[in-house]
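Self-study notes.
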Amino acid sequence: IVCETGEPAPGVWPEVNAVAGGSLCLAHFGRQSFFGVDLDAREAVGCLPEILVADQSAFCGIFLVALFQSTASALRLTQFSAACLALEGKGLLLFGPSQDGKSAVSRLAARLGLEFHSDQATFMETKGNGMRAWGQCWPALPQLDRPKSNSEISAASHLVKGEGGALVAAEQHALRPVSTRSVTPVLCVFLEPVSAEVPRMSPVHGRESWRRLQEEGMVGVADSWSRERDVVARALSNLPAYRLAYGRDPGVAAVFLHSMLKAHNLLEAQS
């Protein structure tokens, strides 16, 4: 990554525009900044004005996140748009429309005792006959999803202004308990924040689970549907899956997720 001096950049990060074809990917951040990736050659190069490199939160939360997502397939990682929470090494993948509650639900579930791995992007790795789920590197949360009443998270997060909107880049330790290890996915949950007086949970069977993984698991994912993604999605569609309608209170959904993982681990221990 080349850091260049010269004409200062604007006070906000430019919007990201990316194109990809085959093993090549090119991402532009305005007129002055870019990175290019050649997956076959396992090489990448980037150039940024020093004023943007000095903005550590944005450099990590925007530039390095985009670079990692563009190179993840070279590490045999398949990205899905999902949050990931875990208990004792068993992971729950949380799907839902963009900016529809995954981040808030994930943070609240972490405060109830679940391990926080990611709130927006989860990377799946196939190993032998099994799968492992890895969380994202640097959480970057939509500004509107920032918890106003949680002073602990607010104190450990930074506002990042960009042409595409504002983000809150949160330090990992603010989302405790945090783990950087991979976990085995055992449950899929599809959030439905609809008006409901009483929370409702209902099973989602294989074909519908497969359809929703295609629709909701690809939101915001840069690369296209691939053979590797097909293999992972088919494996995920065989896991127990549920639809959770919980109204507009993310705390209700967080309690359900904690109970579901706890019950799953209890049943597994007894079997």
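Second protein, same conventions, sequence then structure:
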Amino acid sequence: MAKVSQTHGIDARRVLEGLDAYRALEAKQQPTWPDAAAVQRASAELSTQPPLVFAGEADQLRTRLAAAARGEAFLLQGGDCAETFAAATADKIRDRVKTLLQMAVVLTYGASMPVIKLGRMAGQFAKPRSSDTETRDGVTLPAYRGDLVNGYDFTPESRTVDPGRLLEGYHVAASTLNLIRAFTQGGFADLRQVHEWNKGFVANPANQRYESLAAEIDRALKFMEACGVESAALSQTEFYVSHEALLLDYERPLTRIDSRTGELYDTSGHMLWIGERTRDLDGAHVEFLSHVRNPIGVKLGPTATVDDALRLIDKLDPEREPGRLTFITRMGAGKIRDVLPGLLAGVRDAGATPLWVTDPMHGNGMTTATGYKTRRFDDVMDELRGFFEAHREVGTFPGGIHIELTGDDVTECLGGSENIDEATLATRYESLCDPRLNHMQSLELAFQVAEELKQLRHSHDQEVRWRPGTNVPGR
């Protein structure tokens, strides 16, 4: 439990009692721990560990997201479907960060506005499941719920839930964050270097359709160089982390009272989101996150109604604070054009201005005849285009994208410039849960979204003027 004290005249005990109101409500998608005492010991130890992120960083992200909600910035949120402890190596973390940086440069130029970089990293260790169990060849074992709960290997030992994984997840998240901070502040994120990486992507004959956009970026950078522009903003960048706040036995002990303000922050990540399966108004997840000051996201599927959205706003963002609440829509390519415009208009007409982001991955899943879960790149792009079309129709701002991706050359999603087909899926299918875009598909997506952003900019006849003293766009 967090330390109880008097902070800024606030009764900390009362604040924590308010936070713990979630314990009386239904918490969906939680593991069944066989040893309650072991969970309590793990939670108690977690509560003594240093915070993974700091309140000031979460506040800064909320300011950035507020700009995106006003149409003055764009959010790029991406990373693994489910992080694993084994994959938290320097090379794999570097490649994920590299992919997001490459995408951000392209999006920044297309949007002519800052791009907020938010990784699905350093905490995406727990996953909701459609069933509590999994059966293979007549053997039934507990479902894999992410490395924070149990192992992926289909053995009784691996699938046994283990509270010790809560602490292991914390330490893996801490080391991941250390590397992210080193990469983004130590020169790895240099804008010129990142663009050189993208030039290599465009040099591939399959991607030459993006050559003109890459050439425009190249000219802009050479112009800056000729003008003698040289600052830390060229070599360093802001980078934030996020995950689904699913496992409450992990999130609660990492929630702390900020010594500056006396307010609660979940220090497991800068931004936390609530999934489509756990967004019940009277459920534990919504209640828990309503008490913390972090920016909060909520996934909205095709069954979401205007009333659902407005009630979530009332619960999670009653003060209508810019940057506090992000709606992440996951409708499916075949439904987004029918469902999203009404949702956007209803929320707009109620006077609320959340940040709207699209997740074009989760609504477009399919399973091949050979049993591989996959997605078609064309369906992902179709939902992205539908997202932009819906906002144009209603007159609201398409504020960002939320993508499951990896920096590796896996073969998990069909199509793209590499023309991955069903036969190719088996060659490098590595995801433990849902299929991810590989490095090349992620960059291809970024170039296509940049084209949408350029059209949006031109349609609004918008001239972007940067105030003196601000960072280089997107940095």
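Instructor comment on the second fold: Residues 85 and 172 are 6 Å apart (CA to CA).
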